[in-house]
Amino acid sequence: MFNRQTLLVLVAAIAAGLGLWAAQVAMSPGTAPVATSAALPAVDPARLKAVRLFPAPRAVPAFSLQQSDGTALEPAELRGRWTVAFLGFTHCPDVCPTTLTDLSRAQAEWEHLPEGRRPRVLFVSVDPERDTPEKTGEYARYFHPATLAATAPEPALENFATSLGMVYMKVPVEGGDYTMDHSSALVVLDAQGRQVGLIRPPFVPADIAADLALLAEVAP
After folding, report:
1. What is the pLDDT of residues 145-160, one digit of tens each?
2. Which one in 25, 34, 36, 111 has a CA-CA gap of 20 to 30 Å to 195?
């Protein structure tokens, strides 16, 4: 018979599995993408080491997140430059700080690029109960000052994550506290704000940097 602790472990495992499943579905050639007005950038997939492009770009539905400076983060702000989006939370013990550190190394390699072609990183907290927009921004900027940071109350947050094929869930732990399970893949948005691919762990900063620089050059 299952006890409560066993059940929590199973829930966490299911959440992690859903994240992988979401990524696999997103990469599946049989998944019907939302029609968009332009095709993917003309890049030979063999040249990309980290980014796995979808068969066709996917439009991201309208959303509105809250940035640390009090302004709204809406689709228009993610147009014009390539973006790597990552879901996490500030109380994350390992995956989030490790991933943001890897991304900061990629960001360092983009600093020589013209600002208008420099890829961006977007960190979205999936723990709005504890992570205010201000706290989320402070946490993200600790790793790199140029990182965009935002969160949102429910259901806006869940709608945004779901639109990217990502999942997360609140998991209780001993002592009355909780943690957050979430998808670990990185979402790649092109300069039109469309979802065009994923980056799966393990992450290699140099490969991420090279791939995004190439994509931004071919489709600025």
Report:
1. 999 999 999 999 999 9
2. 111
